[in-house]
Amino acid sequence: MSASGKKGSAPTVDQIQEDVITELANQFWSPYTSETKLFKPKVIEDIYSKEILATKFSIRRIVVLEFSQYLECYLWPNYHPEKASKSHLMSLVIMVNEKFRERVPAWEAFQSKPENFPAFFQEILHASLKTEEFSLQEQAMLLVFLIHCFNSLEVDLIREQVQKLVSLSIWKNILPGRCEELFHTYPKYKKFFNLLRKNQSKLTESEKEKTEFESTFLADLIKKYFSVLGKIPVSDPMPMESVHYCERFLELMIDLEAQLPTRRFFNAVIDNTHFLVVSKLSNLIKRPEGKLFGQLMDMLEMYVEFEINDQTGEALTLHDRIDLHYNKITALQKVLFRQFTDMQDFAIANVASIDTRVALRKHFSCLDELSLHKICANLNLLPFPENDETTHKKEFLLEILITQHERRPSQQETVNEMPLYPTENIIWDENIVPTEYFSGEGCLALPKMNLQFLTLHDYLLKNFNLFRLESTYEIRQDIEDAITHMKPWYVFVLIF
Known about the structure:
Layout (H helix, E strand, L loop, with lengths): L12 H5 L2 H9 L12 H13 L5 H9 L2 H6 L10 H17 L5 H5 L4 H13 L6 H15 L5 H7 L13 H10 L1 H14 L4 H26 L9 H18 L2 H13 L2 H6 L10 H14 L13 H22 L4 H4 L9 H8 L4 H10 L15 H12 L5 H6 L7 H4 L28 H31 L10
Helix pairs in contact: 3-6, 4-6, 6-9, 8-9, 9-14, 11-12, 14-17, 20-22, 21-22
């Protein structure tokens, strides 16, 4: 995604004062005029269609709206869930996103009138799953709004809503066998899970529908992402809105995985969907437009495999990591020993000789799709195939087995292998080292310094990466300055 903006893109004070939006503000919502203000829904419709949609979500127009206090004085005070239109909903989303882009407090207006916020948030969730009423660009903006919500857990008003989406109830989206494995590891959660189901049975039909929607929201959102990602062709032209949507979705997943309150139960859900495998095998990651997508994938993979106990929040030691890895390999070997006689060599081999990507692919590539699917099903990675027929491709099944069982380097080993000085691939990559005129519109493959950190190592690692990139930015500036003083020019040589 192109994240760079143009210098001087913000409007001047004179331009704002002469703008048609300022005239509307003085007439309908400005607190600095003494005129009686009347609410007209058509004003919101006109502004959204003429000033936002018609200008293709121009930052200049949105900045003027933000400067006029459009959110605080008109949109939110006049928001009523049963009457609000799509334009009203999207206008609220866009103005909140703009406040975060400008790094100004975004939730104060909602806290002044909090009674309508739960219904507003529910409308956002429902809109995020719709595909026909909202364009992909609008859907991406809804994702950005959700990203800001999940990064604002310190705000009580926001936390009360988002915590319902990542509570223990979302484990209902996991395969039954996988869920039982988790309950065996954490017995107390089985008691709480059964208690949640018991309490849900006492609710009214409307309350049941609401809790069911909240517990399946993230799983349904991932399915929608898979649908958008699957429609991207290998080489044919495609709308960049699809790419931007997928990039924003990865940013949302990274933020969910990078905070313990949201990660605790969600990590099992994202692993159950084989999110990493589906994304790695997608067409987008193979296209030039998928460069940032691939970088975000690397960040997500790092957090999905982060060395932490999701339930206790304690950092895993080297021995803990080895035990978890060996337990996975042992479970795979037991399944092969009992049910696949032609894989006995693998079943009795020592772990160190079979846990690399190359070795795993060599051993399992000789099996057909149905056998691979049955192995995955016995390991509770996929449901059992119906009527001995599988609909999954062999490459997908192979990648699941390899991703789940390959040996991975520790974070300490990864950090030790990082180069001290930036390479050419990093120093000129604006997705990692943004330009001086970065406007904040797009997402970057950079760690976020929020209030939430997984472990002390996570905090130090984020600081280390940002320090390296800050140094890289300074080195790039020095190089650009030196080249400017050298005054280079192109020389064309014609050979006859």
